[in-house]
Amino acid sequence: MNNYYGRIIGYGKALPRNIVTNADLEKKVDTSDEWITERTGIRQRHIVSDDEHCSTLAVGASRAAMNVAGIGPSDLDLIIVATSSPDFLTPPVSSQIQHMLGASTIGAFTVVVGCTGFVTSLIMADRFIRAGGYRNILVIGVEIISRMLDWEDRNTCVLFGDGAAAVVVQRTDERSGVLSHVMGSDGAGAQHIIHPSGGSALPPSHETIDNRDVYIKMNGREVFRFAVPVIGNTLQQIVTEAGLTFDDIDLLIPHQANARIIESAAKLTAFPEDRIFVNVHNYGNTSAASVPIALTEAFEQGRVKKGDTVAMIAFGAGLTWAGAVVKL
Ligand code: UT7
Prior knowledge:
Strand content: 15-25%
Helix content: 25-40%
Mean pLDDT: 97
CATH architecture of the largest domain: 3-Layer(aba) Sandwich
Bound molecules: oxa(dethia)-CoA
Number of helices: 11
Structural class: alpha/beta
């Protein structure tokens, strides 16, 4: 029996160069800086330009993460990409990224569970390493939601942003990596976040364009109602399963969808707000990229370091959720 653990040894992010403020959005849709700030905490978001794509942002974040890790593409033996906004539905963007990075013909696959994707992928990477056979796994969270948004729908377009971040998970003998985890899904809530004409059920037609089915539709109020207890329950479960208490968690990194969701979950669980990482004001909801962007910034700002214990929790389309206690 081996005793392998998967430690995060590299992290990095890549954001589109163009920043869109709430004031910019006031000129596009019937909204206000005041409404967006009060209801969500969001002040700005990065939005891709024509020459920026899911694949290119992912490659930028991956190179940054490998740089911190001190490894090159030839050291990788698996690439896992969490995204719901790949360059194309076919081919998988994970293979595009593998080729663009110059990695050898290693395995690469895409995980599609909305905003929950990165935490799910990190859990998978950890389990692959523990099982043996893998040394360096690149895990990427990347999203170009802006190209799937209805820029005439103020209920959705003000909430999201584009971005990417990646981590390198490396095999080690030292106890680290995912100490406990939870993954959940409840398809009964599928209609609350849906991209109706994004797959095979409703192929593109004049009608789908006229009905605006080619864009993401969301029932924000229902997602809010679902998210708050899910964060609380998941946090409780993963901390207990790891044999820890809230005092042992150096930093909670929740999915950055809305500052009010995070505040409400903190109140519900009595988790101290000064140990919760929040950066939604700068990026909006970057879906599968939000937790790794936050983790990267937590490292960069010295909020976490090697040896710390963090809890990561995400929720989103499906509906789905995932949480993990991770020793860095
Ligand atoms: O990663 C998971 C993906 N999804 C989410 O995380 C979304 C979770 N949900 C939320 O963040 C919040 O529910 C929202 C920010 C989407 C909405 O906040 P809320 O406090 O739940 O507002 P509401 O849905 O109750 O809407 C309040 C009002 C409505 O007007 P009426 O019907 O009360 O007259 C909306 O039409 O605010 C209106 N509204 C806006 N007004 C100005 C909705 N969007 C906007 C807007 N600007 N952009």
